[in-house]
Amino acid sequence: MINIIVQPLGINVPINEGETLHDGLERSGISIETPCGGTGVCGGCRVWAQDPSKIPPTLHSDISTREEAEGLRLACMAVPIDDTTILLEENYVYAHGECSDGQILSGKREDEKERELHPVDLPAVRVATLSEASGTEENSENTAEVFQMYHDRSPKPIDLHLWKASYTPKGVAIDIGTTTMVTSLVNLETGKILASESCLNPQVIHGHDVLSRIQYASTLEGLSEMASLVQNKLNELIDNLCSNSGSSTKEIVDITIGANTTMLQLAASIDPSPLGHLPFDVDIKSSCNYPADRFGLHVNPQAQVYIPPVMHAFVGSDITAGLLLCPEFFDDTKSVLYLDMGTNGEICLNVKGNRLTTSTAAGPAFEGMGLSSGMRAKDGAVQKVILDGSSMIFHVIGHKEPKGICGSGIVDFVAALLGAGFINPSGRLAAINNRNDSTRSQFGLSNSQQGASNNQFGASNSQFGASNSQSGASNRQSGESNSKLGVSNRQYGSSNNQSEALNNQSEAPNNKNYSFELLQFKGDKKPHETIVCNRETPSPVSELDGQPVFYFGKKAHLSQKDIRQIQLAKGAVRTGIDLMLETAGISCRDLDCIYIAGGFGYHLSPVNMEKIGLLPEHAAEKVIFCGNASIDGSLQLLRNGSKRIFIEGALKNMEHLQLADSPRFMEMFVTNLNFPNMDQPS
Ligand code: FES
């Protein structure tokens, strides 16, 4: 056994001989993000060894010789050989402590005020004294007041033993996502949101997807651990909500939960394994209440948890809650599509009163996971890419060099690469020079400009052609870059870019053909900064490990393999949409609107979703984003008891479409793997 002291947590973690740091830390509840799935490709799981001799180097193009000597290692590949201390970067979550990660994982939601969405109607729960309830003034000064909870699902009032006259009935809306958890505390008398808190779902230490979690929970010990992880974290969030709003946990008498079925069952300590195989049985009961104790929640002992209707094993109460944000979905004169984009793509369709739902395994690509430089939406993540004439503009969160790309950025980036001719409809990535004239012209390169553009990309031509003469080529390139950067400097008013760009080139990873120039960090308004790659730069398409890759930063890149992952994800979602529309006998043109939910929903570009074929033609103008609809829908259910009755009735006749049963599924899926051909007029 090897002992590793982990900083900044200050804890000792025993690692088995021959075990990787990643695996050993994970056993102890420390989950380091592994964007490439721990295959040693992305370089995203960095840790620092205090004594580098105790952990042999992990070779990677992103680790310079100096960094290696200073102790930089990749946790997914590093196998310690002796006791030492390591320092974690900001890329981990500790299940038994605070979330370390940035803005989406902890703290108050920024849009809290905007989420005062609907006025309070009549909450499902109210608290009154016996005398108040009976409308009498009989309570004598000598008689202690008896408080009772009136619940719309309970035939009799329930005595509240721990209630004080100074208390106000409060409720908590909860969204348990596979990746993040969000909670909001509400005053049930006024409907006012008092506080909100969110964090990473601590179960991520046992896998990023529901199937890994189901597998881990297949033993009694595993199930108990998974339940405790989420219950403890929810109690921590509830404690924070109360202390931030001056409330007592005993004032919490009502709770609503939006979650997928696996998260629901794990939170209630119910074995989720039937969800992982045919006939996909759901064991948690929905459209009903549970005592809060069932979810291990430390609130008022009489508090109830309401679970909205679950439509199918793969369409949980998070989708039901989310639909409440879409009034047209329940309008029998309208045709409406609802799409929740996450690891699973859940799709619901209302065609004039006929309602249908399905789900499709999209994988984590659109959440920025599983890609070479995929990451969550935090500092250093590209969250938006614009193809502006002959320039490709990258918006990066925070004042940092781009470290990777998050979900919304990926959709934009692929659309820009398609538009610029860097990838073709089959998804093949290549240097623009290798494209035909029609795609070149899309990037603003007319045939008459071809000669000029050949000069502009001449440096990269020589690089692609002659790797052995790299230094000579680089020297020539440096000379050319000087004049090009002169133009850029004038254009963007940056004085130090030239040397910075040359430095960047010399610090390039061991990829011999690396040729991207970081022209500038444009002084955009906080929190975004912008880098620009345009025709003045050599082609950023290069080669890494025998595969074409597109560099959008010194190290961040999108590889051919990443594009294949994106094709699989968008092919799955699009096939689900197409089959739903076909089954209902309508086309996208017939839809009145398309609601898109999901944590990153507000940042997606509908036009680019259509450009990459994620949405059908004519969809973009119909899109309405509703963000994290699960938490907002759960809030509605908390503040309006009548919504519970409404949603249970409205979804009674919802049918489920099993995509895999359709004989057209595979044919459609294969077609939808391709990107739309931008050469063809729509
Ligand atoms: S290199 Fe370790 S997770 Fe990607």
Automatic annotation (TrEMBL):
Region Disordered: start-end pairs: 440-510
Organism lineage: Bacteria, Pseudomonadati, Thermodesulfobacteriota, Desulfobacteria, Desulfobacterales
Family annotation (PANTHER family): IRON-SULFUR CLUSTER PROTEIN, IRON-SULFUR CLUSTER-BINDING PROTEIN-RELATED
Record-linked CDD domains: fer2
Domain 2Fe-2S ferredoxin-type: 1-92
GO molecular function: iron-sulfur cluster binding
The protein's name in its UniProt record: 2Fe-2S ferredoxin-type domain-containing protein
Cited InterPro entries: 2Fe-2S_ferredoxin-like_sf, 2Fe-2S_ferredoxin-type, Beta-grasp_dom_sf, Corrinoid_activation_enz, Raco-like_middle, Raco-like_middle_sf, RACo_C
